[in-house]
Amino acid sequence: MDRTKIIAGLIFLGLTACGQKTHVIRVGSKNFTEQVVLGEIVAQHLENRLHEKVARSLNLGGTLLAQQAMINREIDVYPEYSGTALAMVLKAPAGTDLRAEYSRRFHLAWLEPLGIDNGFAMVVRGADARGRGLKTLSDAAKTIWALGVGYEFEQRADGLAALKSVYGFQLKGSPKTMDLGLLYKAIEQGQVDMIAANATDGVLSKMDLKILEDDRHAFPPYEVSLVAREELLTARPEVRAALHELAGKFTNAKMQELNYQVDVEHRAVGVVAGEFLKESGLN
Fold first, then answer.
1. Any residues with CB less than 8 A from the CB of 241 and at least 6 apart, and which?
2. Residue ending a domain, choose from 161, 176, 211
3. For residue range 124-179, what is the model confidence (pLDDT) as tens digits?
4. pTM: predicted TM-score of the whole model, two decimal places
């Protein structure tokens, strides 16, 4: 253990021993529904287990803003995606040991996966898939598509560039770039006939849509794990134990359901998070 971690641990323990208020744990998230829901679940779970108030800095912004907030010690834990961590944070090739690199570079702990793999999902209308016998992206590459994408997918090397490079996709003009929330309306109204969605989008389970299998593995896995500051986990092992309880408690289908409740049914994030913890036996 290096000197910085020892000092941090002594500060935490010293405050506790003196009966003073300890460091208030701050949970962060990026600025889209799934992240906010996961952040609220983490915050409520820590409050339940630690019997103390947890601060929330949810809806921070994009990946780099969330990562910088961790480095600046403005937040202590937030959910991150393995593919995003590799491509945008570490700028490292597939196969890089995330746990080792996050610890070495940032003194951050990459914890066990939650059970969600929210990779890019290329989606077509169910009727088109059935009519053309489409199951994989290799099947779809034989057709020219009007594609709708989010801003991030268009710009990232592991997004549109990977799709074109691996499958040689031909498009009807330039992709139509829009906010993620508008993609499903665009495909429903026929403005586009394929969209770059995310595997845990809530409406995927409710609309007649087909996710095409990425049979040539153009996109890396996007397993969700919690990232936490090592000095906090060292000083307070009960925090690590509480966060570990969330590992493996999710599935893509469950995350779709939670996202749908918030995005479409407009249920309060706090209520949805609390119900999830209760159903999972974690309340």
1. 49
2. 211
3. 999 999 999 999 999 999 999 999 999 889 988 889 999 999 999 999 999 999 98
4. 0.83
